[in-house]
Structures are given as structure tokens and as C-alpha cells.
Design a protein that fits this description.
By secondary structure, this protein is α+β, with helices and mostly antiparallel strands. It has one domain. Helices cover 15% and strands 24% of the residues. It contains 1 helix and 4 strands; from the N terminus they run ββββα. Strand 3 and strand 4 form a beta hairpin.
Length: 59
């Protein structure tokens, strides 16, 4: 079975990366960019609404 992934984009430094939902906290938890360490709700790091729906649906 192929695992889904979520595309993330930092709103401050524009770093983009992918992660599996199982490796991420809840969409409403505070998350820190691995590049610039900006702190925001994880939902604000998702690139698209589809990525946010995937994250919510698989957690």
C-alpha cells in the first residue's frame, strides 16, 4: 500500500517539503519550520486545500 504525503510550504521563508501525515502533529498544533523555525499552526504550512484535507483525513 502506498502511503499518502502532504506538501508543506513555510509562509515566512518559502521552504517547501513533503511529509507523511503520520509523521506530523495534528493540523491545529503549533509547528516549527525546519529551516527558519517560524512557529504557526500546522494547517498554515499546508500548500493547498487538498493537502490540508489529506492531513485532516489521515490523522
Amino acid at each position: 500500500m502506498e502511503e499518502a504525503y502532504v506538501r508543506l510550504l513555510c509562509p515566512e521563508c518559502a521552504k517547501d517539503w513533503e511529509s507523511t501525515p503520520s509523521q506530523l502533529p495534528s493540523h491545529d498544533a503549533v509547528y516549527h519550520c525546519p529551516n527558519c523555525h517560524a512557529s504557526r499552526r500546522l494547517a498554515e504550512f499546508t500548500r493547498t486545500d487538498h493537502d490540508l484535507r489529506t492531513l485532516k483525513g489521515l490523522q
